[in-house]
Amino acid sequence: MKAQLWSEWFAQYQHPLYRYLYRMCGSREIAEELLQETFYRAMLSLSIQDARQARAWLYKVARNLYIDWLRKKTSEKSMLENLRRLFSPSSRSYEPEAVYRQKEDKERVEWILQQLPERMRTILYLRQVEEFSYQELAATLDMSMDQVKVTLHRARKKFREWEQRVEGGVDNER
After folding, report:
1. Distance CA 21, CA 18 (A)
2. CB-based burial label for 100 (10 Å; 0-12, 13-18, 19+)
3. What residues have CB less than 8 Å from 155, skipping those under 6 apart?
4. Are 63 and 141 a contacting pair, CB within 8 Å?
C-alpha cells in the first residue's frame, strides 16, 4: 500500500517539482539531483496520508535542498544569474514581432524577479506558476497564514515597483 502511494506521489509531483527546481537553479543536472534527494528524504521521513499536505511538504523539502545547494555553490550575485531562466522559453506565436515582444517581456520579468529576495521569488513562483493555495504556501515556507498574505502582498508590490522602474528606464539603481 505504501509503495503504491509513493508511486502515485512520484508520478504526480515529479514533473512539477523538477520544473520548479530547474527554474530555480537553471541546471538540468542539479535539478535532477535535487529532485532525487527530495524524494529520498520524503521516503525516509514523510508519514502524511493527505496528498495536499504531501505536495506542500515535498515543495518545502525541495526548496530547502535548493537553498542548501545555493549556499554551498554560489554567492548572492551568481544566485541571481542562475535564476535568470525562471520561465521556460515557449512561444506559441511565430510572427517575428510577437516573438521579439515575448522575448523582451520574458527578459524584463526575469530581470525584475532577479531583483527580489529569494523568499519573494519563491512565493511568487509557487503562487503564480504552480498555483499553490495559501495553506500550501504556509506549509511549504514555514509561515503563518498572515505571514503568507503579507509576504505575497509585499512581493507583488515590490515586483510592480521594479516593473515601473524598468518601464521608466531606471533599472540600474538600487
Report:
1. 5
2. exposed
3. 116, 119, 120, 121, 123, 124
4. yes
Residue 36 near residue 62 (C-beta atoms within 8 A): no
CB atoms within 10 A of CB 153: 10
**Count of alpha carbons within 13 angstroms of residue 152, beta-carbon side:** 21
| 3-class secondary structure, 79 | helix
The per-residue pLDDT for range 93-133, each reduced to its tens digit, is: 567 877 777 778 778 887 888 888 989 989 988 888 788 88
Which residues are CB-neighbours of 5 under 8 A, at least 6 positions away?
A: 49
User: How far, in Å, CA of 151 to CA of 4, rounded?
Assistant: 37
Q: Among 38, 36, 2, which Cα is nearest to 140's?
A: 38
Q: Which of 40, 21, 43, 20 is nearest to 30 (CA)?
A: 21
The phi, psi pair for 33, rounded to 5°, reads -65, -45
What percent of the chain shows pLDDT beyond 70?
A: 79
pTM of the model: 0.54
